[in-house]
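SAMPLE LOG
Freezer: B-3
Tube label: C17
Construct: single chain, 641 aa
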Amino acid sequence: MTLNKQLWISILLIIFLNSGICFILIVDAIKDSLGEQLYLKNVDNANGLALVLTQSEKSVSNLELLIAAKFDSGHYSIIRLADEDDNDIVVLRGSEYETNVPSWFMRFGHFEVAPGVAQVSDGWSQFGTVHLESQAEYATEILWGKIKYFTLCVLILALVIGAIGSILLKIVLRPLDRIVYQANCFSDRRFITIETPWTSDFARVVEAMNSLANRFKALVLENNRRLEDTRYRNRHDPITGLPNINAFFSILESQMHSYQEYEANVFIMHSVKLMSGDFLSMPKDDQNVVMKQFAQWLSDYYVKKNSLYTECRMARINETDVAVLVSGCDQINYIRSNFLEALTASDIKTRGDVQLDVASAATYVRNNEASHELFDRLDDALYNATESDDESEFVIDGFQSSVSDDNLAQICSDFIDNVGSGSSIQFCDVKDAGDKKLFSLVSAEIRLNESDCGLEALTAFARRTNRLRHLDLALIRRAISALDISSGDVKLAVPLYASTFASVDSVKQIVDLLKSNSAYASRLLFDCRESAVTGRKDEFVHFVESVRPYGVKIGLSRVGESFSQITDVHELGLDYISIDNAFVHDVLNNPTNQAYLRGIADLAHSLGMKVYANGFIGADGEKLLFEIGFDGLAREKYKAL
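STRUCTURE (predicted):
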């Protein structure tokens, strides 16, 4: 029973108890007062009648006439004149008094009033005695009227008090709603703080809970700082702040290892040079300043173009070169032309009397290609760009368009509208150390040009046509359909892009899907990329609060580079995180990554989150990850459900 109900019951009991006691006391007081008034009336009327009879002729007829006149002038039950031996001389009795008072109240409110008695004289001798009783039913009727009025007043007063009490209770208990919300957030592993209420009792509870939340926040911030320091020192270039070549090779190898055909991963290299002379001949301090400014400008440029790709990874490869790896991008020609325009319009190419230039090269990552082969191809293209006499040359090596936009539009429409027959659900199991399946990562396989390709084939096109969220919604529907025909222990994790959880309309559609398929909601997991959540925390929190009541679990995928940048991660209420392949790809030979992953696992577990990883790292690597504290790994490639 809620505190609000308990307080209301207490208030009502107090009101009824107080009213009952007041009722008894008031009824008793009124009854005593009316009884006394009736008795005094009996005595006064008896004395008055006796005085009249004393002064009148003592014949029976005359006595009867006088007594009858008195009887008819009031409400009397009986008037009796008796002689000295108590024998009746004249007796008049009243008829039964008609009243609308309930019979039960007549018994309760009956008056026992003594009659008025007075002596009648005849000269100096006593003639007789007058006994007079007024009708008590009349007093009972008056008592009934007063009780009804009192009861009506009590009811009206109770309603007024109830209305005022309801308002006051709502004001007084308003902090309780926030306390309950905070407690529910704690149970969902969202350690938030709330404003301290003015009620001292509630304030003590809130202060204790806020203190707990602040301790968790301090723990998260401190651990995040340590993790970030560890990661930054070993994976970043100290001059530009970009990842170093070792970190980039881990990223590239992991991406190529999980690469799917038609995924449209683009590898770009930008090299700083002088319009005349050798850049490396400049003083080292000047080189560092130039590379730092160029890295910042390059980062800003790719952030502005984030609508063209799913993810962007950058790194400083050597003294002059910056590498960029973008995923889910099929607009390499647009990037080339726009990059050259932006570079020409910027002031990055001028530093004092020195004129700088940028040579660039780009290529699509080919299927089943080794990383050294990719670098060799790109180095050749970059060399041609560097040796070119043209200003700011941007060479594209081996541009290929796997499918026309018309075909992509048709395939995308078929998939979104759920009428395409050339697609099937694919999944990859996440298993624990005992090889028990925890859930399955979901994708889709689409028949394209008589060969199979992954869902990423449509991502770039859907992004360009602003249909990425529709693609996600279609995949959720496919996942629910798959759950409908699968056994009850199957759980599916569906990847979502930022445009989906940041769209109010998409969130509403997802909620509607969960409502209409509530039996499967608890077997669904929504997988959002860390890089997407980093810049859209508020939208992500709203999305989580909207879908969590239906039993859906929420997780972050590709966690690593930006995890420490997610502010107040303890307030998100995540169920799990999935570590980026780049951090687990070569974990056996990378003690720095081992320490970083151990720190992330400890932090996640302290917040009640599970830790998973994707990648094919061999039995020894898997054993090490489980020893570090991972709860599950995706060991297999995607296969049909």
